[in-house]
Amino acid sequence: MLVSLHWFIFLLNLPVTTWNIYRFIMVPSGNMGVFDPTEIHNRGQLKSHMKEAMIKLGFHLLCFFMYLYSMILALIND
């Protein structure tokens, strides 16, 4: 996105990218990944993981329609 000078899209995706990098860096040693399958069913963790998943789903839906609009606009202008 930086090479093609799409600054707005880059700045829109930057917080999500940094959050994902932070989550993967902060995985405790011994865990299999971000979501530990043995502890995910604790009530507090499950609720927070579902909230995070819904926020990410909303963000990705917003990005999908924004990219779709940009693609249609680019096709019409050609």
Automatic annotation (TrEMBL):
Pfam families: Cornichon. The chain crosses the membrane at residues 6-25, 57-76. It is found in: Membrane. GO terms for cellular component: membrane. GO terms for biological process: vesicle-mediated transport. Belongs to the cornichon family. Keywords: Membrane, Transmembrane, Transmembrane helix. InterPro entries: Cornichon. It is a multi-pass membrane protein. This is Protein cornichon homolog 4 isoform X3. The gene is CNIH4.
